[in-house]
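Task 17 of the worksheet. Students: predict the tertiary structure of the chain below and write it out as structure tokens. Keep your answer in the requested format; marks are given for formatting as well as content.
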Amino acid sequence: MTMFPGRGRWWMAAAILGSLAGCASLQYPPVAPVPPEPAANAPTATPTPPLLPGDKPVLTRTRSRWVGAAWTDLPGWEFDSTAELWPALLRSCEKPGPDWTKLCADAQKLTTITDGSVRVFLQNRVQPWRVETLEGATDGLMTGYYEPLVEASRVPRGAFRIPLYAPPADLATRKPYWTRQQLDTVRAAQAALRGREIAYIADPLDALVLQIQGSGRLQLTEADGTRKLLRVAFAAHNDQPYKSVGRWLIDQGELTLEQASWPSIKAWARKNPKRLNEMLWANPRVIFFREEPLPDPQLGPKGGQGVPLTPGRSIAVDTQSIPYGTPVWVDATEPLSATPLRRAVMAQDTGTAITGAVRADYFWGWGDVAEQQAGRMKQPLRLWVLWPRS
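Model answer:
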């Protein structure tokens, strides 16, 4: 969801939903959207002595180095449903970097979109590079994230009493702004939020998920009873530090590290309703939203690159390792499984927990299956970038 522009994005293992630092996008605080990188951030050749026979070229970035590779080095390359990448690639081409202008112009001319035609197109125009740390390590981590789907009401009614807020008018005048606890308990803080309600939901844990993700879909009932599907996206935050509720439960001795999954956190909250606010207030950061239309339900939220994310074909990366708009070959496994997950994806998002060379957050989409898959994902990873031939 940059969730979420750039995580907060927007914008963010995801099922723990922001509860443990260092896991997927659901597990780290949203931050301000990250703008596309300038041309100066393109990879540069490492100043080394002339290559000897058999040596591989090396490109360097701030947090990674890329080592020249062959297509045969990409495990499973010939078996990917490469045509599924095409819509995501064309969306990145709406905001291409300087190195991608020619390739994107050619992509607009491709009329026959099949696995074979896309594979040939890429092989003729880009070069694989293995992504490594600056020290030469090739192994990393892939987590997952998703876009929550939550039932909501435009007006408070029945169980729908938990508001989602637009930014308060005085947000820029108070740094840092009120904490989560103060916004719930201090009259002056509550007064600042009056009239800023976008919608109401029934579960405070769902509100927490939306704030951790930085974005989400609302199945909204309007005041007149009509129904609509819309998106709430990150607009601002209260300038308070993010604290993981999962880590708080571990520190309290309520859960072990192994138990700290989102289902366990929800189960603890159900068993300890009198301590729910104590848990929620442990995270002082609050996210404010803006309402966005959802003209095409098949499109995900905008990521850090500023283009909609594609389920199964978009990832969040560290932009100091891999620039936005870069096709990437991932070699990982399905959540809690040894089943290979090998496919071409687009680097279209980022997040504060996604740092390092071989690091990615895989966008699963929305709905129950996406939530389950994202929540279980914490898999070994290898990466190759597919960069235009010079």
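Marker's comment: The two ends are 33 Å apart (CA to CA). The longest strand covers residues 227-237.
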